[in-house]
Structures are given as C-alpha cells and as structure tokens.
Amino acid sequence: MDERRTVKVSKYVSKHLRHQPERIGLVLDAQGWVEIDDLLGAAAAHGFPFTRAELDHVVAANDKQRFAVDGTRIRANQGHTVPVDLDLPPAEPPAYLYHGTVPAALDAIRAEGLLPMRRHHVHLSPDRETATRVGARRGRPVVLGVAAGAMHADGHVFRVSANGVWLVDAVPPRYLRFS
C-alpha cells in the first residue's frame, strides 16, 4: 500500500472511530470498540472501501499507534470527542511529561493551563521529541514541560493509553514550565 493511501485510510478510520462514528452508521461500545467487519462494511457502503489487509497495514504502520485491535474489534487509543470510557487504570507518571503546542496558544495556556478542549483529556508526551512532532502539526512547535510528578502527588489522576500517550483531565498553569 502506498503512503498516500495509508494516510487516507488512517485519517478516515480516525475520523470515524474518534469523532463521527454515526456518520457512517457505526455504533461504538462503551469502551470505543467496534467490530472490524462493521467498520469495513460501513466504509464501503459510504463510498470509501478498503480491505482488511489495508486496515491491518494502517494499524501496524501508524507511527503514533493510534489504533488497537483486539481479535475482531478495533478502537482508537485516545483522542475521542464522542463519549467513550477507555477503561484505563490510573498510573503514576514520570516526574515530567511534555506538551506540544504553537505560539498562538501560549497566552490562553498561561492563563488557564492545558484544557482538553473538545477531547476527553489533555494529551501529554513522554519525551520532548514526541511533543515537538505533535506541536509541529499546526505550525512552529513550542514544547511545554509538565510537572506530572508534582501533579500526581497533589491528587491529579493520570492514565496512559496503549500507545504511550499520557492522559489527564487538565493541567493547571502552576504545573507548566515554559521554556
């Protein structure tokens, strides 16, 4: 499968497993899972057919490991705007995590901290390199340090998704390091 097709299928699957399953008639279960055959059938019925082999390639080749497959089911690992409970247990984070953003967002972040916006959680990266890539998707990246260990000690609950993205409800400004 060529790179263009891989990206196109990945974006289509992300859109419908994270944001608009109803648009193609999918119903996610409470944890965000859907039968792979249902996804393939719905995509084909709505004018975007792809094969199980193409889907398996997208799952395996995705640099961010956005999807999880469990037997005959698939789900997005995080980033949902539709109601799901990923059923991730609380986890103790490292002392510092990182968040990639763009300069235009800094004033709001300084005032309000990091908020989930339309998503369920704030997404944090385990290293600066990953946060830089995340921030670069929307322009020149700025990487913020997050005192995750201090937040955890103060009672904030962290969870980590299957692909290593750390999730938290919000990050108050006092835990942010602007460099």
From TrEMBL:
GO molecular function list: transferase activity
Keyword 4Fe-4S belongs to the record: no
E.C. number: 2.7.1.-
UniProt-listed SUPFAM superfamilies: ADP-ribosylation (SSF56399)
This protein's UniProt keywords: NAD, Transferase
InterPro entries: Ptrans_KptA/Tpt1, RNA_2'-PTrans_C, RNA_2'-PTrans_KptA, RNA_2'-PTrans_N
Chain segments annotated as coiled-coil in the UniProt record: none
Function: Removes the 2'-phosphate from RNA via an intermediate in which the phosphate is ADP-ribosylated by NAD followed by a presumed transesterification to release the RNA and generate ADP-ribose 1''-2''-cyclic phosphate (APPR>P). May function as an ADP-ribosylase.
HAMAP family (UniProt xref): KptA (MF_00299)
Family: Belongs to the KptA/TPT1 family.
The protein, known as: Probable RNA 2'-phosphotransferase
Source species: Streptomyces antimicrobicus
Biological classification of the source: Bacteria, Bacillati, Actinomycetota, Actinomycetes, Kitasatosporales
